[in-house]
Amino acid sequence: MYQEIDLDKIDMNAEPPAEEPARQYYFMAKCRQWVREFERKNGRRPCFFTQTFGCQMNARDSEKLVGILGRIGFLETQDEHADFVLYNTCTVRENANQRVYGHLGYLNTLKKKDPNMLIALCGCMMQEPQVVEKIKKSYGFVDIIFGTHNIFKLAELMWERLVIRKMAVDIWEDTCLIVEDLPAKRKYPFKSGVNIMFGCNNFCSYCIVPYVRGRERSRKPEDIIQEIRHLVASGVVEVMLLGQNVNSYGKNLEEPVTFASLLRQAEAVEGLKRIRFMTSHPKDLSDELIEVMKDSKKICGHLHLPVQSGSSRVLKNMNRRYTKEQYLQLVDKIRAAMPDISLTTDIIVGFPGETEEDFQETLDVVRTVGFDSAFTFLYSKRSNTPAASMEDQVEASVAKDRFDRLLAEVQAISAKVCARDLHKSKEVLVESVDDHMEGYVTGRLSNNILVHFPGDISLVGRIVSVYLEEAKGFYYMGRMENPQ
Known about the structure:
Elements: H1 22-42, E1 47-52, H2 56-72, E2 75-76, E3 84-89, H3 94-113, E4 118-123, H4 129-138, E5 144-146, H5 154-164, E6 168-170, E7 191-195, E8 197-198, H6 209-213, E9 217-218, H7 221-233, E10 238-242, H8 259-267, E11 274-278, H9 287-295, E12 302-304, H10 312-318, H11 324-337, E13 342-349, H12 356-369, E14 373-378, H13 396-417, E15 425-433, E16 440-445, E17 450-454, E18 463-471, E19 475-480
Parallel strand pairs: 1-2, 1-3, 3-4, 4-5, 5-6, 7-10, 10-11, 12-13, 13-14, 17-19
Antiparallel strand pairs: 8-9, 15-16, 15-18, 16-17, 18-19
Helix pairs in contact: 1-2, 1-5, 8-9, 12-13
């Protein structure tokens, strides 16, 4: 990245540095030496495969992991038939864990055919002690295990595994250390995520994130802005500021800074065209932030504001620290300032003790707000969270029925709401060549809705004006105006 170290200038005979990120570049150089020896013996460079489970913060972490592997000298491949396989795991819901165990069963068959294959697991799931013990006991063929707090240590742990030739396990319970100056390979050359903070202090009763991601810690604003400037210089036109609760950014810094203030600084970066962020907790969304968004020329007209439930009673049991009425008042305030803003949300169905009356309150919020879209989830019991031991767990069949009714309501409303810009001309950031329609490209409006229109690969990464000809419920068909 912007302070990247030249591996050729590292003395590998010296002791590894104590400070970061110099220490990790030292181990990258060591691992690159191993890669070159592998290539000499096998007549090819080793290849790697990564798979990311979970949120956008995990996706950003994976970009760093891929960047490190590429710097070491590995070649990326598209499936698990590789010399090194890494899963960046999620543990927000139980089925995420089960998916990883299923994949490990498949990897075991591959490793039996190729004993030299290396397998690594990292991310949120690895922060659960019982998971690590299960892997040690039942999946002993795994080579490297590390968690969320030391993602940056991939090269060091890989070297440790290569030297000691047994499972390398390094799980930190928490940390105040932030190491960002490492290689990263972005999925898109024109847009990028930027971590502004890590961890969460909210302790919603159903959520395991504070236990696996740790307490909130914010990056210094000058470091964030420096990274954004670097990204813009490399061709990025849109950034996504990432945190578990961006609205509480800056509270733990030596000199506290508000999220709104950070957005003002990002807005001033020359060459940056669009700013997005997620996720926002309703209890911390300030009037200052609404004002900054209203006046901004770069902040996108989209706000993801998880409600989780429409019942004040359930919200209290969830430890969300707002009521239904407070949430709706906040929405009114946001819409008064920005009438055209796109609002999306998260909703959990079947939380312990939820009654049909509570569920009807959720439907009422959905109808009142008119969300552009909603991520709807069946409640998933996570061990060691307060909700897991609550009485009145909702029967699966009842929860599924409510989930289906909610989904139908959300989709019907979204189809109407998302058509509000029909027959208007809007700016679209072109993201890719359309993989379903030949001769078309796909882009995204400021409000995050997709648009498909005729074009070619030369448009990818550009912001162009598109006339929205047809609304298809959750996307538009359009045509580019004034094509060059």
